[in-house]
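lol ok so funny story. i was supposed to be doing the assay writeup but got distracted and ended up predicting the structure for this chain instead. priorities right. anyway since i did it might as well share w the group, maybe its usefull for someone
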Amino acid sequence: MTARKPLVRSDTTGLSEATTLNNADVGLGNVTNDVQVKAAIGTEIGDLISFSAAATPVRVAPNTSTVQKFLAQTGNGSTSDLPSWQTFPSHGSFTYYLTNTASDVSTYLQSTIAPYSPKTTQNYSGIGTSPVVLKNWVTVPGSPGLTFIPAGTYILHIHTSNTGPGNVYLYGELWECNSAGVDIAKIGTTETTRDVSGAYLGNTEAEYEISFINANVYILSSTASRLVLRLYGVASGGTRGAEVYVGGTADTHIELPASTVDATNFVPYTGATGDVNLGAHSLTGTQLISNIATGTPPLSVTSTTPVPNLSIGGNAATVTNATFTTAFTNNGGAGTITWPVAGATLVIPTGGGTLGTGAFTAAYVLPVATSSILGGIMPDGLSLSISATGKVGVNPPYLPSKQGAVYSQSGLYEYINQIARGGQFVPEVNAYTHGVTALVTAYFGGCYSVGQNRIYLIPYHQATASVWHYLDCSNGSITSYTHGVTAVDQAYGGGVYSPNQKRIYMVPNGQSTAAVWHYIDCTNSSVVAYTHGATVVAGGYFGGIYSPTQDRIYMIPFGQGSAAIWHYIDCTNGSVVAYTHGASVIGSAYLGGCLSPAQNRIYMVPSAQATTSVWHYIDCTNGSIVAYTHGATTVSLPYRGASYSPFQNRIYFSPFNQATASVWHYIDCSSGSIVAYTHGATAVASGYFGSCFVPTQNRIYLTPFNQATASVWHYIDCLSGSIVAYTHGATAVVGAYFGGIYSPLQNRNYFVPYNEGTAAVWHYIDCDCGDGTYPSKWLMSGPIFNKY
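and the output, tada:
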C-alpha cells in the first residue's frame, strides 16, 4: 500500500505564507491565497458558493435576518440566474405598509414590507367633484421581485378622515411600474370608502378596508417591476380636504394575494372530497359514466355548438328545446311529436323531412285555415310559435329578437319591404281632446310598454305634479295615475325600455343630482324610486339608448359631457355603473342618441359638441367611447334626437337650430361617415325636436317644436331620402312637442306634449294604410325604435 503525501511541503512550517494553488488542485480559477478565498467564496457561517456566468466563484451571503427565507433561482430556459434569498408568502398574502418616507421616485412616498413608525398625519386639500390624485406610494427598488401575482383579493386598509365640512370619499388604484417608477399597467381599482360604509368620510379618524378582486393571475413585465398605490379623493360639491394616517397604530397598508400550496388543486385517484375544475384543460378517457340518480341531469353543457357523432338512444330518449337544421325521419316507429309549451317554437327544417307516412317540405302548405300566417305558406326558415293562449303564429327569422340582440340587416330590410306602403298615403294629423290637466313644458319624450300596450310620457315640469300620464294604446285615451314619488322640477329627459326587466328607466336631467332616481315597473304600473349611488352634475343626461348585446342602457351625456365619468344602467341587476370614458367632450355636449344595429354602435346626437372637430359613438362590443372626425359644418345646437332608417341603413338627425340651414346631415351606417344633404325644405329656427320612424309608410316623421305653428311640417321618405312637406291643418303652440312615439297596434305616431301640455287638444299622425297591416309590436318596442 502506497502512503498518500501530506498536504504540506517538507521545506515549510505550514501554509501560513502566501501559497499558490493550481487550478488542477482546487478548480477555482485565479484564487491564489486565503484572502481571495475569503473574499470570493466566504468563510462566514452560512456562506454558500455559486458560480457566475464567467465560471468564477462568487459568494452567496447568508440570510442574517430574523425572518426565515428560502433560496430561489429563476432561469431563462437554458441558463440559470444567481440564487437569492426570498421571503415565504404569509397566509396566502403579502403586505406593504404606506409610509411618510420619500422614495427615489419624485413626489412618491415609500411602501415597505416592514411596518412604519411613528404614526403620522398626512393632510390633502383641493379635492373636487372629479377624482384627484392625493399621493402615490411605490415599493422600494427590486420589490416585490416577482414574475406574477396570483388571482385573488387586493385590499387597501386605510385610516382616514374628512378635514372639514362637505362630503369626501377615497379609493385607490394599484399599478405596475418599471424600476424608474414609470407606469406600465393598472392592475385594478378598489371600491370607494363610501361603497363599504354607505357614507362619506367623517371628521374623526376611521378605518376602512376597500378592495377589488382580480380573478386572473396578473403577469408582471419583469422581476424589476415595482408596485404603486395611487390614492384618489372625490368631493360632492365644492373643494374639500382629507387626512390620511400612516404608521404606528394607524397601520395603513395594502395586502396582495400570494402563492400558497392548496392541496385541493390535486386530483385524487379515488375518493375525491371536492369538485374538480380543469379550467381551460381537457379531460380525455375511454368512457364517461354518471351514477347520479334520476331527477338530476347527468350532463350540463354551456355551448350551443352541435356535437358531432353524439347519439341519443334508449326507450326514454327525449329531445328538449331542439332545432332541427337538417332533414329528419320518424323511421316508421310509433311515437309522438308534442307541441312546445307556450312561447316556444317548432322549426321546420330547411331540408324538409317525414313524420310517419306523412311528408312535408320546407314550403309546406298548412292543411288548416291559416289566413294569419303570411298567406298560408311557410317559407324556408320560418317557425311556428305557440302563444300563451294556444294560438299559432309565425316568427320571421329576419326580425330582431324581443331584446334586440339577434339582428339581420338584410332581414329587417325584407320585413319593412313587405309591410311598407310608402308614398301612397298623405299624412293625416288628428287632434284629440285628452281631458287631463298637465303643466306647461310638461313632458320630455315617451316610451312604449309592450306588455301593457301603453306609451308612458316622461315627466319634465310635470315631475312635481301629483299625477302623471300615459296613453292607453288600446283606445287612444290619456290616463292619469298617481305616482306617489318625489321628484324635482325638470326631472327627466327621456325614457328607455329594459326588455328583460320589463321596466322603463327615466333618464335623469334635473333629477340627476338627487339621491334617488325612478323607473316604471311595467308589470304593475308602479313608479319605483331607487338609490343610484352615482355622482352626476346638474342637467346630467338627455336621452338614453338600450344596448341589446350588453343588456345595458347608456345615458346620453348633456351637462355630464365634460365630466371625467359617465354612467350606464346594468339591466341584469338595475345598478348604475360609472365608467371613465376618456373622451374630450364639452358641457351640454349631446342630446339623444340612436342605435346602429348592424354596426352595434350607439351614435350620440351632437348639441354643443357639434362645433368641435370630433363627435363620439359608443362601441357596444366593448363599451368604449370612440371619437371620430365628422367633417360636417353645422350651426350651434343643430340637432335634437335622431331616427334609424332600416331600408337605407342610415341615421337621420332631427334638425333643431340646423332647420334653417341649407343642408342637414345623416350617418351612413355602412361606413360610419357623416353625409350632408340639401333638403330643399323651408323650416323655422328650432324647428324640430325628435322624430319617429313609421314602418308601414317607411317614413321618419319629424316632431314639430317651433315648426308647430307653421302651415307645413315635414317627413323623410326613407325610400328616396327626400324631405317632403305636408299641410297638417292642426293648431298648435310654439315649442309644442318633444319627441314622437309609435303605437304599433294602432299604427299611430303620437307627439309628446311639451308647451302643448296645457292645450285642450294634442295630436297624432294616423299611419293606418287601410289594409290591416300592422308591424311587429316587439320590433317597434325594441331598442332600434323605442327610445328618445
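The helical segments are 23-26, 34-41, 193-197, 409-419, 777-780. The mean pLDDT is 81.
back to the writeup now i swear
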